[in-house]
């Protein structure tokens, strides 16, 4: 696969679910095999191959000193959880992903976030002696026509 550094072992994993949004469901994640797990920095996105029913998960990985692996989703709607380190068979570090879908248009929530950020900036401006735009009164000339 082009644009991958030499000297590593790479594999592509299909994703399911929305726990790692904004990476879209159905994306293919390209990951590099990690031989020494201690080299992983906290919250490194990885594919973790597990023993048991669930073959693998795509999560942010944190190795804990108590012998567990903390797994966290990018999507804040999902709870983090831990698995015993001996339940993790392999760890593959995220390199990139590919998808055949276009990004979704902005949601109302994203628009609200942008508005809040704008208001915060304007309030900071006001505290420095300015007058924020969103408080400005928009006075338009009145064009009432009397019929008579």
Automatic annotation (TrEMBL):
Protein origin, superkingdom: Bacteria
Domain named Peptidase S24/S26A/S26B/S26C: residues: 12-91
InterPro entries named among the record's database cross-references: LexA-like (IPR039418), LexA/Signal_pep-like_sf (IPR036286), Peptidase_S24_S26A/B/C (IPR015927)
UniProt xrefs under Pfam families: Peptidase_S24
Protein name, as recorded: Peptidase S24/S26A/S26B/S26C domain-containing protein
């Amino acid at each position: 696969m082009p644009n991958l550094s030499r000297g590593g072992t790479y594999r592509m994993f299909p994703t399911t679910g929305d726990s790692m949004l904004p990476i879209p469901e159905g994306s293919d994640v390209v990951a590099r095999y990690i031989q020494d797990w201690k080299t992983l920095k906290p919250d490194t996105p990885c594919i973790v191959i597990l023993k048991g029913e669930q073959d693998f998960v795509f999560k942010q990985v944190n190795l804990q000193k108590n012998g567990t692996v903390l797994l966290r989703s990018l999507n804040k709607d999902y709870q983090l959880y831990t698995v015993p380190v001996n339940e993790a068979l392999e760890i593959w570090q995220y390199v990139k992903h590919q998808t055949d879908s276009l990004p979704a248009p902005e949601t109302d929530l994203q628009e609200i976030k942008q508005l809040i950020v704008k208001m915060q900036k304007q309030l900071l401006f006001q505290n420095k002696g300015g007058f924020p735009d969103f408080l400005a009164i928009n006075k338009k000339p009145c064009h009432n026509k009397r019929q008579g």
